[in-house]
Amino acid sequence: MSRRRPCGGTRDDVIAPLNKIARFFSDKGSPVIASADWHPKGHYSFASSHPGKKSGDILEGGQALWADHCVQGSYGAAFHKNLDLNPVSLIIRKGFRINLDSYSAFFENDKKTPTGLAGFLKGLSIDTVVMGGLALDYCVLYSALDAARAGFKTMVIKDAVRGIDFPSGSIAEAYKCMENSGVILVNTEDLL
Fold it and tell me: Which tens digit of pLDDT belongs to each residue from 88-111?
């Protein structure tokens, strides 16, 4: 999300485990869903949209400001070139409302506006969600918490996530928060 280097390795390190897990679940007939930020130019979460503010500042109400990222149609909004999208049956684009950010793949940050993912999964009688990706302390965290709140058994694959660690300590706090919310932390090898 920001230009900071993710902690605990690089963002590229999540690709191999994500591809392996996606193929595994797809081969078993389970849907594989990808989510991605899809921000319009001038998005509310961009520091550049707030004169005098910089990336890392927090607005009243708690919105973190970031460098411009994942702008619709730009190279920065594309999935990683090595991420295998063949097993993916649905892509959730989030954060596309100019004045509303979205960390979670389930709800916008207002906690009221659904993305439709919970309804899609429940319509398929899915009761377990397994996830990985970027960034652990934002999009993965909020998606995992929302999945658990929506009644799904929720697992986060530790070797398939990387965080930003902004503010410092947010990665450790994210793990603690997920565990306290009943999210199960696993490694790829635990699932295969």
Answer: 999 999 999 999 999 999 999 999
